[in-house]
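This part of the workshop introduces the protein records we will be handling. A record pairs a protein's sequence with a compact description of its fold. Comparing a sequence with its tokens is the quickest way to learn the format. To make this concrete, we reproduce a full record directly below:
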Amino acid sequence: MVQKRYPQGMLGACNTPWNEKYQLDEKVFERHLKATLALGYKDLYVMGTAGEGYAVNDAQFRNIVDVFVSVAKKPGVNPQVGVISLSMSAIIDRIKYGYDKGVRLFQLSLPSWGIVSDTEMMTFFKTVCGTYPDAKFLHYNLIRTKRVLTGDDYRKIADAVPNLVATKNSSYDMNAIRDMMVKAPEIQHFFVQNAFAYGATLGECSLLCSLGGVFPNLTKELFDTARTGNVKRSFEINNRMIEVAKGLLGHLKSPYVDGAYDKSLEALANPEFPRRLLPPYETISEADFAVMKKYYEEQCRDIS
């Protein structure tokens, strides 16, 4: 058994509600955070792609961090702040703001203007993570950055960067999952719900709860059954979640940014949550959302 750098858990995304003036609706945000904590999630993050971390300006970033920390920074909770930018120095500056507020866990994405080389990749992680050696970092491994890291990449990074402790992955490619689990086993890999059941057959990994706000009980059952070795039941839940995700989102034809899907899913369970995105990005149309809602109300009553 390899000692993990970060404990196993369920990672829940927190969305950012904007009012009609595109200012953070602090009251709705606070209620959203408290409701997520009440569901039992201890690992929470803001400003990944779901929380529009790619679109916020510095003032909005600080506002989100302030409210997030005021609610989520408490014993037993691991608040995680996402930082996305084309500029490495801007990433370091934003981390400093969260760090000064007491945050010690940050989510990083690679700069995405161009595909980083191996040398550039290592420079990024060594510099950013090395600037805050007593903080911990999770890497958000996504195609939007133009380079998806492999098990070999994480092996190199893990050897050189001791405070890179976790990854977040939306891929369900079995070869990629196995590659990461085998070659970088000390890193805690968070896999989305349609990949977690398989990942858990290879060793300890964690769950990225992309449907956790809509179906909290089924999400918890997936986590518990997979990590305790109940393979049959975990794959039954895995298949049900794939079916549900297709039913909710399969009719969508327009390409949307990630936050459009996540905010619409949140609004199914929490009707007060606004679905608008920061311009120029558009959310899912009212007509398409009505289809989602109809499927949710008619086909998902057996799960929660």
Observations:
- The mean pLDDT is 95.
- Residues 10-229 form a domain with the TIM Barrel fold (CATH 3.20.20.70).
- Residues 218 and 250 are 20 Å apart (CA to CA).
- The chain has one domain: 10-229.
